[in-house]
Amino acid sequence: MNILIKNGRVIDPAASLDKVCDVYIQGEKVIAIGSTVKDFKVDKLIEAKGFVVAPGLVDLMARLKEPGYEHEGMLESELNACIQGGVTSLVCPPDTDPVLDEPGLVDMLKFRAQKMNLSRVHPLGALTKGLHGEALTEMFELTQSGCIGFAQAEVTISNTQVLQRALQYAATYGYCVWLRPLDYYLGQGVAASGPLATRLGLSGVSVAAETIALNTIFALMRSTGAKVHLCRISSAAGVALVAQAKAEGLPLSCDVSINSLHLIDQDIGYFDSRARLTPPLRQQADRAALRQGLASGVIDALVSDHNPVEGDLKALPFAQAEPGATGVELLLSLALKWGAEQKLSLIDTLRVVTSAPAKLLRSTPSLNAAPSVRAPADIIEQGTVGFGELKVGGVADICIFDPESNWMVQPSQLRSQGKFTPFDFDLTGTAMPGQVKATLVGGNLVYSKDL
Amino acid sequence: MQHKRNPQLNKNGELIHLLSTEGLSKQLLTHILDTAENFVSVSDREVKKVPLLRGKSVFNLFFENSTRTRTTFEIAAKRLSADVINLDIARSSTSKGESLLDTIANLSAMAADIFVVRHSESGAPYLIAQNTAPHVHVVNAGDGRHAHPTQGLLDMYTIRRYKGDFSNLCVAVVGDVLHSRVARSDIHALTTLGCAEVRVVGPKTLVPADMAQMGVRVFNNFDEGIKDCDVVIMLRLQNERMNGALLPSSQEYFKGFGLTPQKLALAKPDAIVMHPGPINRGVEIDSAVVDGPQSVILPQVTFGIAVRMAVMSIVAGNDA
Q1: ipTM computed for the complex
Q2: What single DSSP character describes residue A30?
Q3: In angstroms, what CA-CA distances link B124 with B17, B86, B113?
């Protein structure tokens, strides 16, 4: 199919492009940006005057609840939520039921996701079997099935020797290990340590729970040479340590969640379980450092940390409520809100949800891999050259949005089965900037609204 | 970002649930104490009843075990002429798998007017108050480490009774402040009522430095903490604190932070000694102090009934 997107404000952070022009799409690919294509037979015209035409968003942390919730059609609903949010590629963690620790499970997930033809799904394999933090998984085999890295999801490894060996083994093949920095013992609380947790009588997670884990990870990176992606940094002290480690040259990348970027512990209010999150919301100084760190590049990417939690698991006293919030449909708006508040250009704003996370996924090296063996980077690029960017010859993964249109976050409007978010209009009383008008994945118009 | 109203108050600022002493105005706290004053004499009458809650049903929902608090709420409700239903939830529906909110919905359907709730999780009474029928009032009888507002109020009543004005008082709260809902309710009430100085006293594992964020002075030395105080509130030390590396032993704790007549001599000569009970003699407090002339521990229990009568009659009189 030939698609012409006319008169949109085309923004590609990778090429620092920001101009009003037309985009020509033929089949899966972008064939022209800003120049005209002769004899182009338009099958579908998208009039994008006043809208931004950007690369499809890349979300490095979105839970799809599959395997485990196939019967509830979670994969379908969550991938539909993704495209409604303009997210065309996502990374999902292995904390499913069963855990993604066997190649067959990964094959099945990739197969089912591909058949739906919506967003591209890049699974992380479990770093240890069952995420128990004891035995290593078959990382090589899992990679051949399509895992792009290995993670412990929310389960911290308490045994440092196991962590060291997991990093050594992953480094053998050049695989990236995704870790949320959290000390096992200090990380057992339900809210960030501080005045609010003290006042409400909630058990606290101190900043030291993050900094101790970061120092451990950095020391092990130096000795093993492993490449690590840090998931959802949450504190000012953590940002400072990451900056130091990057300056030292450790092969490190890092992300922050939309929740920590915009909210603080005070947003828990009167024990609102919608603000029961991991990592827990911290204080104002932490939020300021996270916002600054994301702007300066110390933090590479912004993630939705999407976690659809069912109602019964949230209708519980705060500490017992399941942590997590729906988020994939809010990622674009919360990136725009942050960018506007930091007075950033749209190029710099969109970078943290497009080209920066895409670059991070692409840079996974393949060291000992024979030509016939797939490395994570090959898997990612397969048929998706240029994802997270807008370039001629690149794949047409595109998000078109109206930057002037505001919307209210209301559970009934969300396509995700997860209806709980601390950004619910009912809680914040404020509207969200930017509304997705169309999403294209591989040249297919998979979502459009009032176009 | 939150813009929610305090769930304890209706839009006229009247008390519809009692969930915490935090966020209540000085006038409101004083109004509760004044109302309690009127009820104290009811206990001395031949017929110990007033008809304020006649025809109303008070459900005692104790998700966590308690004898004393449940009994005083029951007595208070009966003296207000209410019907009282005690539910031993710890041993009934929730243990059969029913969710907290389903239990609440079922009990609301039985035409309850007041739920008196105790729960082991901080914030559980908020969840209940926000999900119950509008005609039901919730009174928090202790939630996790968060709040025990009727205990806080009866402590305020006791202090006012013996010391009068709060504005020139120094009050020390001693012991396991970290895990104490009583301490939190006392601290919020004392600071709101204009108490000159509130101190928290205990070892650093039980009174961490960030407690100062609640508007109190932190003392990790008992002698300094108790010096020249007008009121000493001792907290119960639970045996499980010896696990989890918070304290080495109850004997060592008593040597460091147990209230003996010698330690009490450091406070003002007319200082009163309070304790929310149940008391661990020889762990946090010496028998000689418990039974001594400065102890007001038993009057606290008596006042507790009047305070609970005041709270229930006030919330029942206000519409959501």
Answers
A1: 0.93
A2: E
A3: 13, 18, 18
